[in-house]
Design brief:
Elements: H1 2-8, H2 16-28, H3 35-43, E1 47-48, E2 56-57, H4 60-71, H5 83-104, E3 140-142, E4 152-154, H6 155-166, E5 170-173, H7 180-191, H8 201-224, H9 239-252, E6 257-262, H10 267-273, H11 279-286, E7 305-311, E8 314-320, H12 330-345, E9 353-360, H13 361-366, H14 368-375, E10 387-393, H15 403-406, E11 423-427, H16 431-448, E12 452-457, H17 475-482, H18 487-497, H19 505-519, H20 557-566, H21 578-591, H22 599-612, E13 617-621, E14 636-637, E15 648-649, E16 662-666, H23 672-684, E17 689-693, H24 704-711, H25 714-718, E18 725-729, H26 744-750, E19 757-759, H27 764-776, E20 783-787, H28 802-805, E21 812-813, E22 827-831, H29 835-846, E23 851-856, E24 858-860, H30 864-871, E25 879-887, H31 893-903, E26 909-915, H32 926-941, E27 948-950
Parallel strand pairs: 6-8, 6-9, 9-10, 10-12, 11-12, 13-16, 13-17, 17-18, 18-20, 19-20, 22-23, 22-25, 25-26
Antiparallel strand pairs: 1-2, 3-4, 5-11, 7-8, 14-15, 19-24, 21-23, 26-27
Helix pairs in contact: 2-4, 2-5, 5-6, 8-9, 8-18, 8-19, 9-16, 12-23, 20-21, 22-27, 23-24, 29-32
């Protein structure tokens, strides 16, 4: 029975970690494995070393594959009755035991402070599973493949060492990682100290001080502000010494900036006890006495904060990101902010900047943006050199504690395995183990620049918030919690019992902290109030500025021609695709003024002129290098290249000797995380033109949380200016409901307080000027661009060279037909976007001379002055018709109504021409699309009927 169990256990059947462990033992010492295993490994064909040297190694993959194939045929081992073979079998079994503890020892670790369930039965961790008996306990085995400090150990000592290392208060998952160096690193770090922290008396006093601070703030707030929401940290108190250690350890490794993202639980505690916010300022917010300087403001547990903290290794700048209640959405924002800070320092691997993300157990397992953010962690253009993830694991999620309803995975952190990130599970009631886990996590991140997670298994003393009564639904759990003395007391009593601290020290610290609260004193490491880092950004020039549509965006003709030539030439030995070759030839001709400038050239010249003037450009999206509609071709590909990762050329990186960087990124297939990343980047870098481009404008649906909670409202809630540009291809051309509309109406609903710009440019000159205006004006507002699709190659949307060297962006484009006499016009058709060109053609076909057509290029802020000036041109005007491609309940119609009415004369009429209201953004039937398009054009010029407003 036992033999059957062993043959079918996870150790057999081709389990890669076990085979690799056995193979690693063989490489270290061939005598450490049984003869038949040694012969087997010797027989595997050797392959050249990856480093190209003459040395050869046995590759792991053939070993594992061969083993898996043999396992299908039955038990691997063939054991004779000889004593030597029996001893060989036991040596193999000892290696299997070591592998088992490294693989699944974490599942038997003592992690739950509440001890609600008994440790699980894991047969593979018991010597009997391998046939060992009590009589085998004193057999000495070769343990040179371990890091316990001995090359030989008795089975008894080996078992004790393994349990101390992998099954105590710290359980580490790392054996699924593919990189052998990383696995060996963890084995050495853990086994050399048996996962037992070695702290000085001063270290332990510091840990107790931080746990006391964590508990002290919560209890003070509970007593002083009864019932007010604060999302208490009680039960997860070890999180504060974790953060304290993280900052100190990271500082000692050279990190100078830490960007932190976290949700509500413990946020106020972090603000006071980590970032150094003055308690008096927090109390004022509880008493509703804080300053109200923003149009809207936000609740205190959404607020961000920045400070410079003095550490033993020097100043460290801490930045806690502002974020809403949408759990985990702050993750990509933090990563983008960290990336911007890295690039500002020229730190491309993350030596000086660290991103820290704090999660809840339910949120990290349940929110998809976690996976999207992890997917970017090692991708060019998005990597931040490894993020430290910390989970405040309350073991209850939001309201549930039934394991069947928490999640589908064993651990809440199992999502980390998708990027081979190690996870350190640690008992939150052991602050020293938590601090050790933090130290190891920072060391790992410093060494390998990969993500790592710390799972602090703790509990939630109060409810989800302070107005909640969790015992109503979780009576058993909260009976246990009610009887729990608290992490601080447990640790203080332990130190006093050990004689590390004098008896009464714990109570004295409690009184001292409360006294500090009463006096409103700072309770964290010293805050350097007058410190200004070399790489800090001054946002002052961009703040408190009045809106203006004006900006000097034209460039001199000589500069135009110089830049146009630079972006049209390629190296002599570089062969582009024939279609791209034609694009470059056309661009050269546009630069010389021989043909009108098309959309792609207008964009390119905006980018070229900006980088030449010192403004970096960062453009990302799912197909941004080429452009979804092949209009951009910013990244050229050598058709003769021999390797996939070589042979590209970007003309925009070669326009001037000392130009600013130009970066275009073909992003991962994500909207929410990538847009959040770019928002975070732009929030930390006001001098870079940061653009996110949707493949189709409709795809912004997948990033709606970022749009609602950050882009549209960040300034009025948090006072955070941001110059991010969103390019959203938009236009009704019969491509169906998911490839037509960027949901313009949603953006219009979000417009208020001059919070952002919504623009639908229709010519190459307009896109050129609006992109340049975004950087040249001395304020930063998000720019929502409804970019075209068919217009990208429409010659009527191209612009003469003179429109780039003179003038600027026009919020309204006036009637362009010189044959239309303004004094004879009785009807004005207003529109926005592609439909303008359809209207012009329809008017020409009908040979109408009393109808003028103008384009509203800037929908918000609405250009009242420009419209008023436009209407004065038409003394006989009787009616204005708003014509749009979108259905009546979508598009800009309901937003522009009152703005147009405000500028109309008494007795004038306002009417709508467009598709009827629809539950879908667009129809999917080609014939129906054509019928609707024809109808709306007819309605724009026909007798007014239906919904008509008279001023």
């Amino acid at each position: 029975m036992m033999q059957d169990q062993r043959d079918s256990s996870y150790l057999f059947g081709g389990n890669a970690p076990y085979v690799e462990e056995l193979y690693e033992s063989y490489l270290h010492d061939p005598a450490s494995v049984a003869d038949h295993w040694r012969d087997y490994f010797d027989s595997v064909k050797q392959s050249p070393a990856l480093d190209g040297s003459n040395r050869t190694d046995i590759a792991h993959a053939p070993i594992v594959a061969s083993f898996a194939e043999r396992a299908k045929q039955g038990p691997i081992r063939t054991i004779s009755d000889s004593a030597d073979s029996e001893m060989g079998r036991k040596r193999v079994d000892a290696q299997q035991l070591i592998a088992a503890y490294r693989n699944v020892g974490n599942r038997w670790a003592d992690l739950d402070p509440l001890k609600r369930t008994e440790r699980p039965v894991i047969p593979e961790l018991e010597p009997a599973f391998y046939g060992f008996t009590d009589g085998d306990m004193d057999i000495v085995f070769n343990t040179s493949n371990t890091f316990f400090g001995k090359t030989e150990m008795s089975l008894r000592d080996l078992l004790q060492a393994l349990r101390e290392t992998y099954c105590n208060k710290l359980g580490v998952e790392y054996m699924y990682i593919a990189d052998q160096k990383i696995k060996k690193w963890w084995q050495e770090k853990l086994e050399s100290i048996r996962s037992v922290p070695r702290f000085t008396v001063e270290d332990k006093r510091q840990i107790l001080d931080r746990v006391t601070a964590a508990e002290g703030l919560e209890r003070y707030l509970q007593a002083k502000f009864v019932g007010q929401k604060r999302f208490s940290l009680e039960g997860g108190d070890s999180f504060i010494p974790c953060m304290d250690e993280l900052i100190r350890e990271a500082g000692s490794k050279g990190v100078q900036e830490i960007v932190i993202g976290m949700a509500h639980r413990g946020r106020l505690n972090v603000l006071v006890n980590v970032l150094g916010k003055m308690p008096t300022d927090l109390f004022a917010e509880f008493e509703h006495k804080g300053p109200e300087t923003l149009p809207a403001g936000d609740v205190k547990y959404h607020q961000g904060f920045s400070s410079d903290i003095s550490t033993p290794s020097g100043p460290v700048h801490l930045s806690l990101a502002f974020n809403p209640s949408h759990l985990e959405i702050v993750n990509p924002v933090v990563e983008g902010s960290a990336r911007a800070r890295m690039e500002r320092r020229g730190d491309m691997v993350g030596k000086e900047v660290l991103a820290v993300l704090v999660h809840g157990d339910a949120a990290i397992a349940g929110q998809g943006v976690v996976q999207e953010t992890l997917a970017m962690s090692e991708v060019r253009g998005y990597s931040t050199g490894g993020t430290v993830h910390i989970v405040i694991n309350n073991q209850i999620g939001f309201t549930t504690s039934d394991p069947r309803d928490l999640r589908s995975s064993l651990y809440c952190t199992d999502i980390m395995k998708v990027v081979d990130a190690p996870v350190l599970h640690v008992n939150g009631d052991d602050p020293e183990a938590v601090v050790l886990a933090t130290k190891l996590a920072v060391e790992f991140r410093t060494q390998f620049h990969k993500d790592v997670a710390i799972d602090i298994v703790c509990f939630r003393k109060l409810g989800h918030n302070e107005q909640d009564t969790p015992a109503m639904t979780q009576p058993l759990m909260y009976k246990t919690i009610a009887a729990h003395p608290g992490t601080r007391k447990l640790y203080a009593d332990k130190l006093e019992a050990q004689g590390v601290l004098p008896v009464g020290t714990g109570d004295l610290m409690v009184r001292e902290y409360r006294s500090a609260m009463e006096e409103g004193k700072s309770t964290s490491d010293p805050v350097l109030s007058n410190f200004k880092g070399k790489y800090s950004v001054d946002w002052a020039p961009f703040l408190d500025k009045k809106w203006t549509d004006e900006a000097d965006t034209a460039i001199p003709l000589t500069e135009w021609k110089r830049l146009a030539e630079k972006i049209s030439i390629i190296p002599d030995d570089f062969k582009v695709h024939p279609l791209v070759e034609k694009v470059l030839k056309d661009r050269a001709a546009m630069g010389r003024g021989e043909i009108n400038v098309d959309w792609g050239m207008g964009e390119h010249m905006a980018f070229a002129s900006l980088v030449a003037s010192g403004y970096p450009v960062r453009l990302s999206g799912e197909d941004s290098g080429r452009g979804t509609f092949t209009h951009r071709n910013a990244v050229l590909h050598n058709q003769n290249r021999e390797k996939w990762d070589t042979g590209t050329y970007m003309p925009l990186r070669h326009v001037a000797k000392d130009q600013a960087p130009f970066l275009v990124i073909d992003s991962i297939l994500s909207e929410e995380a990538v847009l959040g990343f770019e928002y975070g980047y732009a929030a930390s870098e006001p001098n870079t033109l940061t653009i996110w481009e949707a493949q189709f404008g409709d795809f912004a649906n997948g990033a709606q949380v970022v749009i609602d909670q950050f882009i549209a409202s960040g300034e009025v809630k948090w006072g955070r200016a941001n110059g991010l540009v969103m390019m959203l291809p938009h236009g009704y051309e019969g491509q169906g409901p998911e490839h037509s509309s960027a949901r313009l109406e949603r953006f219009m609903q979000l417009c208020a307080d001059t919070n952002m710009q919504v623009i639908q440019p229709t010519t190459a000159a307009q896109i050129f000027h609006v992109l340049r205006r975004q950087m040249i004006r001395q304020f930063r507002k998000p720019l929502i661009l409804m970019t075209p699709k068919s217009l990208l190659r429409n010659k009527e949307a191209s612009s003469p060279l003179a429109e780039f060297t003179k003038g600027g962006f026009h919020t309204i484009l006036s009637e362009r037909d010189a044959t239309i006499d303004a004094k004879q016009v009785t009807r004005l058709v207003m529109c926005s976007g592609k439909v303008y060109y359809d209207l012009v053609k329809e008017r020409a076909d009908k040979k109408l001379s009393n109808v003028a057509i103008i384009r509203l290029e800037q929908l918000y802020p609405f250009p009242h002055k420009a419209l008023a000036a436009e209407l004065k041109k038409y003394p006989l005007l009787e009616a204005i018709v708003w014509c749009q491609d979108e259905p009546q309940n979508q598009g800009a119609w309901f937003f522009v109504q009152h703005n147009i009415l405000e500028n109309m004369a008494e007795g004038m009429k306002l009417a709508y021409a467009g598709r009827p209201a629809s539950a879908s953004p667009a129809c999917g039937y080609a014939h129906l699309h054509q019928e609707q398009q024809k109808s709306l054009l007819i309605a724009a010029f026909a007798k007014l009927k239906g919904y008509v407003i008279t001023k």
